[in-house]
TrEMBL record:
The name this protein goes by in its record: Helix-turn-helix transcriptional regulator
Domain of life: Bacteria
InterPro entries xrefs: AraC-bd (IPR003313), Homeodomain-like_sf (IPR009057), HTH-like (IPR037923), HTH_AraC (IPR018060), RmlC-like_jellyroll (IPR014710), Tscrpt_reg_AraC-type_HTH (IPR020449)
Pfam families, per database record: AraC_binding, HTH_18
The keyword Transcription regulation is annotated on this UniProt entry: yes
UniProt organism field: Chitinophaga defluvii
Domain HTH araC/xylS-type residue range list: 193-291
Keyword terms, alphabetized: DNA-binding, Transcription, Transcription regulation
Transmembrane segments: none
Length: 298
C-alpha cells in the first residue's frame, strides 16, 4: 500500500500574486523552480500548464511517460495529468499556468482551446521540439506576457489571453505541418480527435469500438482503419490505453483500495480489473503502487 497520496495543486496554492492567483501564473522558469522545488515529485495540476525550455537538460514525466528535456522544447498539460521532473544543470525558459475558465470571458466558444492537438491529454502529442525560427517568435510572445504581468496595465488579462492564443496558434501550425508531411488527410485527424474526446467523456461506460463508431456515424472497420493509419494502434487499444492510464492515476491515491478503483472504472469485479491491469501494464496493481511509492519516496 502506498504511503502517500499524490498531491493536486491549484493555482491559488502555487501563486504568490493575489491579483492573478485565481486564473494565471506567468513566470520565468528558474524563479518558478526556486519557489516550488517540491514540484519535481509526481503531482497533478487542476489547471492548464505549459513550459517552454530555452536552456537545460534532464527528463520529465507526463502520465508515466518519460521525455528528455532540451532547449527549444515546449510542452502542454491539461488538468488531471500526473507530472514530475528530474532536471540536470541550469534551467531557463518560461512557465504559464492558467485556469480552465481563463478564456471564457474572451471567447464565446468555451471549448475553443480543445481544438489544439497538444491539449488533447495525450502525452506523446503534448511535447514538441520547435523549429529555430518559431522559437524566436515564441520567446518574444512569452516576454510580452511577462511584461504585461509586471506592468499591470488596463486590460492586462485580455492582452495576456490574446498573446497566449498567438502561442497556441503558432505551435499548432507546427503540428499541422508535421501532420501534412505524413500525408494523412486533415479530416482523418479531426475524426480521430473527436474519437479521443468521446473516449475522455465515456471511457468508464463505453469500452467497445463499435459503441464509439456509432456515435461518430461511421463503421467500426472505418474507425479501426483510421486509428491504425494515424496512430498505428487499433481503436480497441486506444480505448484500453485511456482506461489503463486512469487506473495508474488512481493507484497513486493511497486512500483508494484496488476494489474501489475497479468499481470506479466500472469493472465487473476486483479480479477482472487486476487481470486487465497486469496484462496491459505488465505488473499487478499492487506492484505498480509499490513501485510508484518507492519512486515517490526515494
Amino acid at each position: 500500500m502506498a504511503k502517500h497520496q499524490i498531491p493536486t495543486y491549484t493555482i491559488c496554492r502555487l501563486a504568490a500574486d493575489e491579483a492573478v492567483q485565481k486564473e494565471l501564473i506567468a513566470e520565468r522558469f528558474p524563479h518558478y523552480l526556486d519557489t516550488h522545488q517540491h514540484l519535481h515529485f509526481p503531482h497533478r495540476h487542476s489547471f492548464y500548464h505549459l513550459v517552454f525550455f530555452t536552456k537545460g537538460a534532464g527528463k520529465q514525466s507526463i502520465d508515466f511517460v518519460s521525455f528528455p528535456v532540451q532547449p527549444g522544447q515546449i510542452y502542454f498539460m491539461v488538468p488531471g495529468q500526473v507530472h514530475g521532473w528530474d532536471f540536470d544543470g541550469e534551467m531557463d525558459g518560461y512557465i504559464i499556468n492558467f485556469s480552465d475558465t481563463f478564456f471564457h470571458t474572451l471567447l464565446q466558444n468555451t471549448q475553443y482551446i480543445d481544438q489544439f492537438y497538444f491539449f488533447n491529454g495525450q502525452a506523446a502529442e503534448s511535447v514538441l521540439q520547435l523549429p529555430v525560427n518559431i522559437q524566436t517568435e515564441i520567446t518574444a510572445l512569452f516576454e510580452k506576457i511577462l511584461a504585461e504581468v509586471q506592468q499591470n496595465n488596463d486590460h492586462m488579462m485580455d492582452m495576456i489571453r490574446t498573446l497566449l492564443l498567438q502561442i497556441f496558434i503558432l505551435v499548432n501550425r507546427v503540428q499541422v505541418t508535421t501532420i501534412r508531411q505524413k500525408q494523412v488527410p486533415q479530416h482523418n485527424y479531426l475524426l480521430l480527435r473527436n474519437f479521443q474526446q468521446l473516449i475522455e467523456k465515456n471511457y468508464t461506460q463505453l469500452k467497445l469500438p463499435k459503441e464509439y463508431a456509432a456515435l461518430l456515424y461511421i463503421t467500426p472497420n472505418h474507425l479501426n482503419a483510421l486509428c491504425k493509419d494515424v496512430l498505428d494502434k487499433s481503436a480497441g487499444e486506444i480505448i484500453r490505453d485511456r482506461i489503463l492510464l486512469e487506473a495508474k492515476r488512481l493507484l497513486t491515491n493511497a486512500d483508494m483500495s484496488i476494489m474501489d478503483i475497479a468499481y470506479q472504472l466500472n469493472f465487473a469485479d476486483n479480479s477482472y480489473f487486476s487481470k486487465f491491469f497486469k496484462k496491459y501494464a505488465g505488473a499487478t496493481p499492487e506492484d505498480f503502487r509499490k513501485q510508484f511509492d518507492h519512486t515517490y519516496n526515494k
